[in-house]
Amino acid sequence: MPGTIGLIQATETVKLILGIGEPLVGRLLLYDALGMRFREMKLRKNPECPVCGDHPTIMKLIDYHQFCGVPDPRQAAPERETTVNPGEIEVTEVKRKLDRGDDFLLIDVREPHEYKIASIAGARLIPLGEFAKRVGDLDPQAEIVIHCKSGMRSAKACGILRNAGFTNVRNMKGGILAWSNQVDPSVPKY
Asked: pTM of the entire structure?
């Protein structure tokens, strides 16, 4: 259903851009996917409409981010204190450790196709689905930092290691998305 509606929207866009055909302006197309039927309704302009009526009161778009209570990604985020759990490490600290050449193992538990899209130099790929079987490949005495896309899968991997007796394991807070936002914007987001 989304594909059908998306195709219709794309077709309407092309018609409007090229100025050809008969666009759905002033008409409403109804789609009944279960019955595989389309219906069309003609719409009349409402003279009382606050946007397009005879006496409009809404003259500009609202601030969507403010209206929804979502921070505007185009503006710098206000400085705020971040709290890090003892089992977590900030991406900026991981970057400092890499730059200093600290002896630790950085493990990426995403899938291989995700790793191909975006990765951190020096990270070892062990997908979460294989992680429990490959615990024996890791040194229980090593310092280990685990990351994924946002921090959820890596938290599970940290739990697997802790249950196996590993004590020096931390989850990279925010995953590779935080890495891209705070450390290296050239790392693609997906």
From this structure: 0.57
